[in-house]
Design a protein that fits this description.
Layout: E1 5-8, E2 11-14, H1 17-27, H2 44-50, H3 70-75, H4 83-104, H5 114-149, H6 153-173, H7 182-200, H8 213-218, H9 226-244, H10 249-259, H11 270-277, H12 281-302
Helix pairs in contact: 4-5, 5-6, 5-7, 6-7, 10-12, 11-12
């Protein structure tokens, strides 16, 4: 098959059916991501790189397995993420998707550009790799919950397999900018899914007792206490409310609208907010950045646990 190439200036335009099909496919697909203030700042990629913890460069280590339990023991091998590692990885994962979406919006069938398509697919591959790293570091949460609710090794393995999908979904939906730890959000999502699975199997035959209970007892349950996390979340919400009082009325409205705080709907764009306050989109962006810097300074001076 001969590829038709059209020369335009110093660049050649590939109009092959394969490329046009790839472009058409991407044009029809919106790339979803969770927004973060850093994405609208100057040089977001460089800003993210500046907060990347060096500990993420350390190898995750070999998988240590035990006889008959290789599947489960391998799942709890990845180390837990520190708060700094978790914050960076969630920001990086969503920034890569954000950047891919910005590139996707530049696609045009009348002016096909293979470099744009390659860039989209490269960013999404890297985003998936980051997501998978977060998932691996939280699989022990799945194992701990499955161990708690299971009456047999077979049932435990089944619950672990079932709950991996909601864990992945939780990673994709979690908003790190709200200041919560991912384990709180994921525990509820995974546990609710396990309850549904168990309810569907209530009529199943009696289970066989778990063998090698000693090994299961050695699987560390390093989750935070859910009740403590609920209290901590309420305390963080109160701290955020107090910090917002340091802003002017306009700054407070922009920040709460931008990040879905104080009863405001989430997901409002800069343009949505600009239309409400009668300002330009660029001015709203400037107010957002200025207000975030002000909040960061107030939080630091007050010793607040809230990070901006």
């Amino acid at each position: 098959m001969v590829t038709t190439v059209k020369k335009t200036g110093t660049r050649r335009q590939d109009r092959s059916p394969e490329l046009l099909a790839r472009i058409r496919d991407w044009i029809e697909r919106e790339i979803r991501f969770v927004e973060h203030p850093v994405f609208s700042q100057t040089s977001p990629a460089e800003r993210l790189m500046s907060i990347r913890p060096g500990s993420l460069d350390a190898p995750e280590g070999p998988i240590k397995t035990e006889p008959g339990l290789a599947f489960v023991s391998g799942m709890v091998n990845a180390p837990l993420l520190t708060q700094a590692e978790e914050s960076y990885l969630f920001q990086q994962m969503n920034f890569l998707k954000y950047r891919a979406e910005q590139t996707r919006q530049k696609l045009c069938l009348n002016h096909p550009d293979s470099l744009l398509v390659d860039r989209i697919e490269a960013d999404l591959r890297e985003s998936t790799e980051v997501r998978n790293r977060i998932v691996r570091s939280n699989l022990r949460l799945v194992v701990a919950l499955a161990r708690k609710f299971s009456l047999s090794l077979d049932q435990m393995s089944e619950l672990v397999g079932e709950a991996t999908v909601p864990l992945i979904r939780a990673v994709e939906l979690f908003d790190i900018s709200l200041g919560n730890r991912f384990s709180t959000y994921a525990t509820w999502a995974v546990r609710n899914h396990m309850f549904r699975c168990l309810n569907r199997r209530q009529a199943a035959p009696d289970h066989v007792e778990i063998r090698d209970q000693t090994w299961l007892d050695r699987v560390p349950d390093e989750r935070s206490n859910p009740e403590e996390e609920v209290r901590a979340t309420a305390q963080r919400a109160e701290s955020v409310k107090e910090l917002l009082m340091s802003l002017s009325d306009r700054e407070r409205f922009v920040i709460t609208a931008r990040f879905g705080l104080d009863g405001q709907p989430r997901g409002q764009s800069l343009q949505d907010i600009a239309d409400k306050v009668g300002l330009s989109k660029e001015r709203v962006r400037q107010i957002t950045l200025s207000a975030i810097e002000k909040l960061r300074g107030v939080a630091l001076s007050a010793g607040s646990p809230i990070a901006f």
